[in-house]
Amino acid sequence: MENAIEDTKLYKAAQEAAERAYAPYSHFRVGAAILLEDGQIITGVNVENRSFGLTNCAERSAIYTAVSAGKKQFLALAVSTPDSNYPVSPCGACRQVLSEFMNAQTPVIFGPNEHSLVHTTVGELYPFDALHELAQA
Ligand code: THU
Question: Where do the domains of the chain lie?
């Protein structure tokens, strides 16, 4: 992320979103926040279902909300997992979806609280991304 202030603000938005998670089965709340080019922040939460496989992760909820609002230029992503005691990284399915809309350099931060954040990028989470390799060809 550009700077620590932006970083903190984005993570805080993810943290607040996590409180709105619908996780009655796992009791594992997740909040995601995406920073848009215009400075706006769009959030998402995990939405579970009694048919477990239908669960939507917070990261995908945020991306789908943003795209549904006509926004596709994403500068950074923050993910908050307040129910874990260590940083939980985005799942494989979410990494694929992130790579659809974010370039390899896009910063990603995740963690259970603001004191134990992991700072990484979409490219580190999802290397050898064929979509972007093809786009550069
Ligand atoms: N989950 C997310 O929303 N994002 C992640 O990065 C990890 C997992 C959700 C899915 C499920 O509702 C709960 O966390 C437990 O796996």
Answer: 4-135
